[in-house]
Every structure is written in structure tokens, then in C-alpha cells.
Amino acid sequence: MNILKSKLLRGGPFLTGYLIFFPLLFILTILFTREEIHIFINGYHTHFLDDLMKIWTYFGDGMVLIIFIVLIIFISFRHFFILLAAFLISGIDVQLLKRLFFPDMARPVKYFKIHDIDYQLYLLPDVHQHGWHSFPSGHTAAAFAVFFGLALMMHSKWIQLLCFILAFGVAFSRIYLSQHFLMDVVAGSVLGVLSAWVAYVWLNRYQASWLDKPLLTLLQR
């Protein structure tokens, strides 16, 4: 139990990076309005970032993450169940918040139109713009849930850092593509981190030996 607590508190480069960036981003959401922050970020774009963000955002897509989680079963069943639980917990939480508590939260394009804000958003023509259910960001929550869950299970600091970069990139891509405001992705990241933490603590309580074996090992019996 002491080892488990130590690992959770340490968290590796992922948690270190998150604890640095999250407070800063949260403060920004308090000091500035959602449209001010979005206009500032939307003003910086390049063809390279256009192409990169269109691809990177798929690291938070449900189907892509499900495929990734299924492949993890070839590493160990425990890893598979932790990531699946983190993904499902974050997804359920996001949908409850979107549908029950914040159903009328407009996404950037719809928000700018409703409030008649005099600014022409830079939008990519081949990206479908959603109108509602902006808060919180489901892509961000899913990415942070899966990649933070993976970081908690990995011993390599480089893998933990890569996980943070992947999750943070998904969050940025949602703003860059004008699918969400900063406050949406900040909230999504919190849900994702908490979901991974809960799943990790919960499933590490079980000590069955088969949980720490890959699928192929059991099939060879």
C-alpha cells in the first residue's frame, strides 16, 4: 500500500507536467473570458499546425482509444482493465455533465454567432463544427484518462512524458480546431486524470496472478 501511495503521489513526468500547466490554465479561465482566450489562440495558425491538429485530435477519439486499449491486453490484463475502466468512467462523467447539467453550452462557432461577436474565426474547411454540448471536452477527458492511466503503470519516465504530450496535444487540438473553449478542455483534463486515478487504485487492489499476464500467455496453456 505504501508503494502504491508513493507512486500515485509521484506520478512521474505526466503528473509533474499537469500540476505545472493546470493551475496556469485554470487561472487564465478566471482572468479572461472564454471568447478572449479563444480569439487569442485562434489568431495563431499555420498550415503545419492545421494538418497536425487534424491528426492529433484523433488521439482523443473514442474508437481510436478503444482500439489502443484492446491492444494493451497483449501486455497485461491489468493494464487493459485499468485503461478500459478509466475510459468508461471519464466517458460516463462527461456525458452526464453534457446532457444533464450543461446541455445548452454552445461550442465556439455557435457561441460567437449567438452572441454576435465581431470576430471571424479561422476554421478548417474540412472539419465539421459541432454546435452544442461544449462543456466539458469529451476528447480531452478520454485522452487524459487513458494516457494518464498508462503513465501510472509505466516505469519509464520517457513514456510518461510522451503520454503527457499526447494528452496535452489533444486538449490543444480541440481549441485549435474551434471545437471547444479553454475551460472545456481544462474541465475535461480534470475528469480524465481523476478517472484514471480511481481506476488505477481500484483495480490494483486485486492480486490475481492472471491479471499481470498478457493474453498470449494464457492462450498458450
What is the helix fraction of residues, given as a range?
55-70%
Total separate domains: 1
N-C termini distance = 32 Å
CATH fold call? Vanadium-containing Chloroperoxidase, domain 1
- The Cα radius of gyration reads 18 Å
Task: Summarize the entry for a quick read.
The chain is mainly α and 221 residues long.
Task: Spell out the key features of this protein.
221 residues; mainly alpha; Vanadium-containing Chloroperoxidase, domain 1; 0% strand; elongated; disordered N terminus
Explain what you see.
Residues 1-5 have low confidence and may be disordered. The chain has helices at residues 2-10, 12-31, 34-42, 47-56, 62-71, 77-101, 108-114, 138-153, 157-176, 182-203, 215-219. By secondary structure, it is mainly α.
Secondary structure: elements and pairs:
Blueprint: H1 2-10, H2 12-31, H3 34-42, H4 47-56, H5 62-71, H6 77-101, H7 108-114, H8 138-153, H9 157-176, H10 182-203, H11 215-219
